[in-house]
Design goal:
Blueprint lengths: L3 E5 L5 H13 L2 E4 L1 E2 L7 H14 L5 E3 L9 E7 L7 H8 L7 E8 L7 H8 L4 E2 L3 E4 L4 H11 L4
Parallel strand pairs: 1-2, 1-5, 5-6, 6-7, 6-8
Antiparallel strand pairs: 3-4
Helix pairs in contact: 1-5
């Protein structure tokens, strides 16, 4: 078993596609975070729900993806950029685990906003971890872009 875990939340498949590319290139185990309540598939309705959850600091219950992380040394954590921060299911995952001594590598998908506060927010939750530079992908995932990033941080198999 690889000691690399790729954890992600994805509403519209963009972050999932990036997570799958990272898993393929690193040989890591992939884990999808699924909250107990699904967001609307209508963008405007979902945006209202999400904005409300973020402003309240709400962390939804996870029905899958929250299994123990003890066997993993390196954890890639993926999220869409939602209102300049993490998706609430990702924050739930971060707050339910101890990342002491682990290497954390953030990744996100976005519609033009890049990382915004995502890397900082992950760092605040994983203060006893090593945080490596992440990747923020806007639009379609390009294998070569992911390969170059993974080479830069030393994680290509």
């Amino acid at each position: 078993m690889s000691n690399i875990l790729i954890v992600y939340y994805s509403l519209f498949e963009n972050t999932k596609n990036l997570a799958l590319e990272i898993a393929e290139q690193t040989g890591g185990t992939i884990r999808e975070l699924i909250p107990d309540k699904h967001y609307s598939f209508d963008y405007n309705t979902a945006a209202k729900e999400i904005r409300n959850e973020i402003s309240r600091g709400f962390c939804p219950k996870l029905i899958t993806g929250n299994e123990p992380i003890d066997d993993y040394q390196t954890i890639f954590i993926g999220t869409p950029n939602w209102f300049k921060t993490l998706a609430p299911p990702v924050m739930s995952f971060l707050r339910q685990h101890n990342f002491t001594g682990k290497t954390i590598i953030p990744f996100c998908t976005h519609g033009g906003g890049g990382f915004c506060q995502i890397e900082n927010d992950i760092s605040k939750e994983c203060i006893q971890s090593t945080i490596l530079p992440g990747i923020a992908v806007g639009g379609t995932v390009v294998s070569e872009e992911v390969t170059n990033w993974l080479k830069t941080i030393g994680y290509v198999i």
